[in-house]
Amino acid sequence: MQRTDSNGEEEPLLADEEHADQHQTFAPNPFAHLPVYTTIHRVHHEVMASIDDPYSLEQLRAPRINVAIVRPLVDRIWDHEDISIIYCLLVNRLQFLRGQAFQAHQTINTTRANLCELVALKILRRFDEENPGRKGLLLLAKILVAGFEPFQNAPEDVVRENNHVIHWTIQNAGGYERKSTALEVAILSESKMFLCMPACQKVMQAVYVGKVVYTPSSFIDILPDHYKHKPIALYRPNKAVLLNQYRLIVPRTRNIMDIGQFILLLFLYILTMKHRNGVDFTMYELVFSVYALGWVLDEFASILEHGWQCYTQNLWAFLDAMFATIYLVYFALRTHNLATGDVRSGAPALNILSAGAPVLIPRLAFNLLSENMLFVSLRAMMADFTVLTLLAVWCFAGFLLSMLWLSDGSHTPLTISKWMLWVWFGLDATGIERSGEFHWLIGPILMIMFSFLGNTLFLTILVSMLTSTFAKIASNANAEIQFRRAVLTFEGVKSDAIFAYQPPFNLLALCIMLPLKFMLSPRWFHKINVAAVRVINAPLLVAISLYERKHLWGSPKSKMRRFLAFWDFSRFSVHGDIQAVFEFDPPRSVMDQIYAAEDTSGQIPYVTSQDFALDGKPPARSPLSRGKTRKDSFGTVAGLTEHLSEFLHEHGGGDIRDRLEALGGGDY
């Protein structure tokens, strides 16, 4: 059975999502009315006015500064109807960090950047605490993954002056171009404290497993299909079609598929190198070349999806880039070999390809042990090592030129470089022994100076840098791991249709579907693209659908699952019941008893500004009604101090205002 939508398109009654209107053609942006431009500058002004002195992050989180600066700033900025406030705070953090790069002698901008992150953390936590359940999860998802642009709702003259910056996009996405999310800005600004907070992790976990679905924004799509836009929503697998092609862009599914693709690539690579033949083009090499070309295309599309800066935040991005470079050099030489019939170019191509083994083997370990501290720190240490090595090559190039000129052609630059490299790593003293061949006096002096500066000074600095980097990462291991999870989640949600085709089918999609994009209407291209994706990935889509219908949101355990759970040896522990009591949420009857006990106990009730009428008296509430869940140590809403003072006077508790002022909080 079919029906006709508002665009005249026939769709099955079982729509792709739980609501039929979730896939409207270029659905209007529900957050287009938010004053993002004004809020960004308002936050910038508030932060600049709040901080004039440099503080460390620990000092900002201290109780006194928290009460005097951070919490009042949160109360001034927070608006429960403006979900763009987190995005605006993180944009300001990124700007302050960029300003700090030009003022290395001052740390005031670093303090302001940390303040922006801290305020964003507290506001997101407030949203989380005041919006429990699935509706709260959806709200948090909108806060973190909804797309905004800095010039949204800016004055017309501002838009005209910055027209060259705003209208850079080359693809039409129905008003969703140039959008970036709070999660993306948090990754760019490396807001690791923000990303590792529970509310943020809850959303990222929901996005990672596919509970929260949305259409991400992208820089450039190789195969764009923006006929229908998927808004941010909670996914209900029981109401979705069996062949739901959108589940291929779920980060968890993408991660499993990427690992499978890489294992297949490694297997084909080993077969190719084992049966290599510089003269003949073997069948193993043909299959590997085609599949690897599709894999490189997938990596290239990933770079275009969110840009090079986000792509390189991935833990194994540098390994993928290195192997892609090695393969493209091999592919160019091998293609030239086959086109010209030059047999001599076949062996060098395979020799270059053999250099990919040191890259492919550890890459699999990075995939499987991505949360191991050794691999997390290795990426940062490799970056420091590369920078210092390039600086050393630059600094010591003068020694090479001096000895080359002194040798007067008796030694080649390669030979001199080899001697210097051995001295650099302390492997051999041939360069020192034969330095007299350059000049009887100047040659030994130059080589000994190089040995002292390189082998002693630079290597000592290198070891110190790597030790400091590892210690810094290890001291904040949880934040580093959560940051890598955020990067993996953000990069896993894809909008480019090319990702729905697994290598090497993406090569066929590039050769067939891309020309059709310019020949067909957006509606018919979307229909053909969806049909092709569902046919190619039918077994995988069925397996995903069946699994998610039983496990995505959790379901009552069947007899078989209960039987298998009994034989779960990880649960055989003396204190296993302590862990099991927190695995499922308590029933409604238990929560009602908890709420009633809180409301009827002799403790000070939690009061909000909405709980006060105009006469200052709190309204009557049902014993089982549940208000806000926040229980801050210091109140900041109007009227709270007076209410608590009267309450404590009646019960002999003294004046609460005197106690608060004694803590240094000032006026509340």
TrEMBL record:
- Annotated Calcium channel YVC1-like C-terminal transmembrane domain ranges read 262-552
Which InterPro entries does the entry link to?
LHD_YVC1 (IPR056337), TRP_calcium_channel (IPR052971), YVC1_C (IPR056336)
Keyword tags: Membrane, Transmembrane, Transmembrane helix
List where the protein spans the membrane: 255-271, 283-303, 315-333, 385-406, 438-463
The record's listing under Pfam families reads: LHD_TRPY1, YVC1_C
User: What region holds the YVC1 N-terminal linker helical domain?
Assistant: 38-229
Asked if Transmembrane is a keyword of the record, the answer is yes
Keyword Cytoplasm tagged: no
Write the protein's name: Nonselective cation channel
